[in-house]
Amino acid sequence: MDLLKEKINQEGIVLENNILKVDHFLNHQVDPQLMVAMGKCFYQYFKKHGINKVLTLEVSGIAVALPTAFYLNVPMVFAKKIASLTQDTNVYTSQVTSYTKQITYEIRVDKSYLKPSDKVLIIDDFLAKGQALKGLINLCQQAGAEISGIGIAIEKSFQSGAQFAKEAGYDLYSQVRIKGFKNNQVEFYDD
Amino acid sequence: MDLLKEKINQEGIVLENNILKVDHFLNHQVDPQLMVAMGKCFYQYFKKHGINKVLTLEVSGIAVALPTAFYLNVPMVFAKKIASLTQDTNVYTSQVTSYTKQITYEIRVDKSYLKPSDKVLIIDDFLAKGQALKGLINLCQQAGAEISGIGIAIEKSFQSGAQFAKEAGYDLYSQVRIKGFKNNQVEFYDD
């Protein structure tokens, strides 16, 4: 996805510990034209998968998942990280460790919004060690929902998440795949 | 906004303490077609305000703010509730009390994404007592940014937030305005 590569090259910031900061267009300030282009791109790849629901994780997945769900013409569900008083106890939960934030948190989805009849496209902004992805997969498994695909904006291919997803047999499509970081520059795989 | 009223009537759930649960299409499961229709509606109202940035608050504001920013063709910035390791200390912060969640939290925006030259449209899903709105206004004031409008999906007109916004002179546009709740039904103002 050339537009996303360009954005990363122009506006991404490489930090220590293999962290790529994309706050300028994805994680804090968001480029809505890019999000819509990414949604179209996921739609093109996954449109024949019979998907009836897009599942993502708050917060950063939402802006990518929403246009994807719009083009697929299906509901988008975001798993939550914090319980609220208006959410009852009728939920599936899973544990996720964030290496960026160095915390372990619980993610949850109301059982009303994830069903055995669902064919789910999981969308997230990043795939690194796959912790958030495993949590989302786990929620789908608890619900008995089928995982019809996994769509990732930015895959750090040198970390273990992508390999895990492929070995587990999932149809993983990442819009950009990062080989590594060198002299504060991002090296991509060409697709 | 008739489509939003219909959704609230069909799928909203009135809970105790004047809480309206819209998890089925806005706050947990999200209807992307509705979000796009709402984005178009905000665009129609605010398109001549010279806006160059849409500001919202994670999490629930994002899905409404993104299509709005898309149609206005400007960046969307969401204020964050939790600090992360990839966010530096160069931020504006404000305190927000959530009556739904019964907590006080800090919201923050990186100073890079809110400037004195900005003409900001603030977007949020709900306006009740106006706590989140006051926090977002406060961030804009700290940045010296101009607030060119406030767009709300669901206004609980019987609570103090809407009156505060109007008395402060802001151009407030709410897509639905709720007069009150009666026998677990929502009563709207007709506009």
How would you characterize this protein structure?
The structure is a homodimer of 191-residue chains. With 191 residues, chain A is α/β, with parallel strands linked by helices. Helix content of chain A is 30%, strand content 35%. Chain A is built from 5 helices and 11 strands. The first copy, chain A, has helices spanning 2-11, 32-46, 62-72, 131-143, 160-167, and strands at residues 13-14, 20-21, 29-30, 53-57, 76-79, 91-98, 103-110, 119-127, 146-156, 172-182, 185-188. Chain A is globular. The mean pLDDT of chain A is 92. Chain A binds chain B through residues 15, 19, 21, 23-25, 28-33, 35-36, 58-59, 62-63, 66-67, 69-70, 73-78, 80, 82, 84-87, 100-102, 109-110, 112-113, and chain B through 15, 19, 21, 23-25, 27-33, 35-36, 58-59, 62-63, 66-67, 69-70, 73-78, 80, 82, 84-87, 100-102, 109-110, 112-113.
Helix content, binned percent of chain A = 25-40%
Give me the secondary-structure category of chain A.
Answer: alpha/beta
Largest sheet of chain A: 6 strands, mixed
- Please report the two chains with the greatest interface, counting residues with C-beta closer than 8 angstroms to the partner's C-beta: A-B, 41 and 42 residues
Mean pLDDT of chain A: 92
- Shape call of chain A: globular
- DSSP strand tally of chain A: 11
Distance between the termini of chain A: 9 Å
User: Percent of residues of chain A in beta strands?
Assistant: 25-35%
Strand order of the largest sheet of chain A: 5-4-8-9-10-11
Oligomer: homodimer
Notable features of this structure?
homodimer; 191 residues; alpha/beta; 6-stranded mixed beta sheet; two-stranded antiparallel sheet; 5 helices; 35% strand
